[in-house]
Amino acid sequence: MFKNLKLLGLAAALLLAVTLVACGGGDNEGESDNSGDSGNGDEGDSASGVELGEKELEVPYVAWAGAIARTPLVEQVLEDVGYTVETKQVDAGAMWSSVANGGSAFMTASWLPATHKSYQEKFGDDVEDIGNFVDQAPLALTVPSYMDIDSVEDLKDNEELGEAVDWTITGIDPGAGIMQNTTTALEEYGLDNWELQRSSEGAMLSQLQKKIEDEEPIIVPGWKPHWMFAELDLKMLDDPKEVYGGDGDRVGAIANKNFKEDSPAAYKVLKRLTEDYNEEIENELLVKINDGAEPEDAAKQFIEDNQDLIEKWTTDLE
């Protein structure tokens, strides 16, 4: 009997010891988990000690060659800093309105002062101009160089050319600012017989290339920088009334008014990027894409080849 009691006592003591160890281990493990959670939270809110603020950024862009080229570069640079970037392809009006109302952080394709003048007048009080990707981007009606016209004025009452192209200017997406400019040009230059065909940039370029292969006439809205001027023999028509903005627009980054406060590191990166980005960089990306590279791959290659520049954009963000 005493032997059984002794065994029961030992079992009870062992059970108590196990319970105490388990409780103690549980407390220590809990402390470790909490410390780990805290560390992950701090790291998620900053990159190398830099306060990121709002980390999820929506960036709208239009389906124009330059925007398609530069947007993935901006996206990848910001993601390397620690942001999550969602890019969204929209038309120009939606791009401006989403930035102005705060649904999007910033855009990569404002054309000012001429092409997006109406959007700037409508949304200007709710956005901030961060800087330019391209300081001078001329726009104009554009034709193959073999065509015997040099000015928009040459289209007026030009029966031979009008009949050859069915009195049609082959346009791009209807929301594009250059389409609005062209509509204005038809009025300003008295081109009553002419019509502007709505299309897309891709469809316009396909038609342009086909016509050039057959050495046939075609008139399109054109802008620089664009790979078509590097790959095709084109000329911009003179615009004496400066409907298309004279020497050219600035292509820039426009942000929501709260962007600087909401995502301070992203604001600094974007501002630095626009200070260094230029037509040469854009043409480099455009040529790679036109040669078959995906826009994301062209951006990735640029980052790999220009680490000094990337470091300049993304370090010392305190």
UniProtKB/TrEMBL annotation:
Predominant localisation class: membrane
SUPFAM superfamilies listed in its UniProt record: Periplasmic binding protein-like II (SSF53850)
GO CC terms, sorted: ATP-binding cassette (ABC) transporter complex
Domain annotation ABC-type glycine betaine transport system substrate-binding: ranges: 56-304
Biased composition regions of type Acidic residues, renumbered to the chain: 29-45
Subcellular location: Cell membrane
Domain of life: Bacteria
The keyword Lipid biosynthesis is annotated on this UniProt entry: no
Gene Ontology biological process: choline transport; glycine betaine transport
Span list, region Disordered: 29-48
Record PROSITE patterns: PROKAR_LIPOPROTEIN
Pfam families per UniProt: OpuAC (PF04069)
Keywords: Cell membrane, Membrane, Signal, Transport
Signal peptide residues on this chain, from the entry's feature table: 1-22
Listed name of the protein: Glycine betaine ABC transporter substrate-binding protein
Organism: Lentibacillus cibarius
Biological classification of the source: Bacteria, Bacillati, Bacillota, Bacilli, Bacillales
